[in-house]
Amino acid sequence: MLPPPVAASELRLSPEGTKRQQDYVTTFCRKRAWRDRELDSLLAELHHFAVSQDVEVVIAGGGLIGLVLATACAGAGLEVAIVDPADPRVIPDESFDGRCSAIAYGSSRVLDALGLWSEIGSRAEPISEIRVADGESPLFLHYDHQQLSTAVPLGYVVENRVLRRVLVERARCLPSLSLLAPLTVDSVEASALAAATTLSDGRTVSSRLVAAADGHKSPMRRAAGIGAVEWPYRQTSIVATVQHERPHGGIAVEHFLPEGPFAILPMNDNRSSIVWTEQSELAMRLAGLPDAAFTAELAARFGDFLGAVEVIGPRWTYPLRLMLAERYVACRLALVGEAAHVIHPIAGQGLNLGIRDVAALAELVIDRRRLGLDIGDDTLLAHYQRWRRFDTLMLAIVTDGLNRLFSNSIAPIRLARGLGFAGVHRLPPLKRLLMHDAMGIFGDLPRLVRGEPL
């Protein structure tokens, strides 16, 4: 049984205690505890970090988006508390589990500006080219990073365990960041002055702002009375990792098939992450095949351009759906990540949308706090909603449209797709614009996405 946390204010009142705390944090951060068996103790010790009953920001959800937001805000000196239902003493096996994320170049700049990319980048595989093929058509789109004036990678592929480890390690180094777990938010009572968040253990934490990063089912969104537009795609993605004989050269492939896209994302060590979308009933049957039969089915779609392939790690299945919250804000509440939006993975942009949410919200909150103003008032929240809603809506429309456009074999539509591919090839300015959009560096960008510090 973990002891109850000590009030942060009590730690600050004791110079001797503060020095011991700072010395401990410095020593711990120098260790850079990368071995898998150390992460459980790292998380458990984060639980001991104190939270006063009055913080500035409460974040519901300790997943990747919640941790990035907490790192951004606490790194600027705000008192932040993460409320997470996961028990830090009971964590999943940190061996490779096959799950990866596509990190757009703009998102890598966010992580770099927060001081995280130096640890992540060494374990990330750059995407230098993207090839988009339409079934058996000889026409395809080819995006090459060398066609850009800066010649930077289009993005990166990173194992989720690497992202989480780096974020948890940084969180452990921030004295103004606390983890309250395993706990959930029972209710939030918001007023013109503050939000009172009642936790499942009976405690009440007061804050200026509450951020809901609690996933697509978001109890916080529902409790705030925020509706959502949503529908299922009747498609399921199978996610797995393969080892192959030949190097991939940093090339990502998006192969559009009538049942759904088949994506090959380059990873380090001659591996690739597969996002294989099929009609849900077939996808579940495929995912349940014995290893040899599953590998044969996958290889038939993968092709032999990288030699023989072997599935490594577990397989994962994700039913696909579209969800857009009707509002991103309520009184002293902001939705971030999948609490606000879920889109089709056809372009690999889901996590990147959430990171841009974080970049926008953190910028608004930190700038307002520096001016001594209320970081959770209606003006700030309205600005956040205006800033993020257009980007999200446009990307949701594009991904939904692409999925509908390519998930059929009607002859006139196939002809239109071919003409579209040829047209983009003949218009380099349009191609560069599409590349910048895929990289997450097009539009009204927050400072973090531009690579600038908060």
Characteristic terms for this protein:
20 strands; FAD/NAD(P)-binding domain; 454 residues; globular; alpha+beta; single chain; six-stranded mixed β-sheet
Please give a quick description of this structure.
The chain has two domains: 214 residues, FAD/NAD(P)-binding domain (3-Layer(bba) Sandwich); 145 residues, D-Amino Acid Oxidase, subunit A, domain 2 (D-Amino Acid Oxidase, Chain A, domain 2).
Q: Terminal Cα separation, in Å?
A: 38 Å
Mean pLDDT value: 86
CATH superfamily of the largest domain: FAD/NAD(P)-binding domain
Order of strands, widest sheet = 6-5-14-15-16-13-17-20
Structural domain tally: 2
Fold-level CATH name of the largest domain: FAD/NAD(P)-binding domain
Strand content: 25-35%
- Assigned CATH class of the largest domain: Alpha Beta
Uncertain segments are 1-37
Gyration radius over CA:
23 Å
Describe the model:
The protein has two domains: 8-92 and 162-229 and 325-385, 3-Layer(bba) Sandwich (FAD/NAD(P)-binding domain), CATH 3.50.50.60; 100-154 and 232-321, D-Amino Acid Oxidase, subunit A, domain 2 (D-Amino Acid Oxidase, Chain A, domain 2), CATH 3.30.9. The strands form four sheets. Strands 6-5-14-15-16-13-17-20 form an eight-stranded mixed β-sheet. The chain has a six-stranded mixed β-sheet with strand order 8-2-1-12-19-18. Strands 3-7-4 form a three-stranded antiparallel β-sheet. It has helices spanning 8-13, 15-31, 39-48, 64-75, 105-113, 117-120, 160-172, 219-223, 280-287, 291-302, 350-370, 378-406, 411-426, 428-438; strands at 57-60, 80-83, 100-104, 125-127, 129-134, 140-144, 155-159, 177-180, 185-190, 195-199, 204-207, 209-212, 228-244, 251-257, 260-267, 271-279, 309-325, 329-330, 333-335, 341-342. The radius of gyration is 23 Å and the shape is globular. By secondary structure, it is of the alpha+beta class. Strand 18 and strand 19 (333-335) form a beta hairpin.
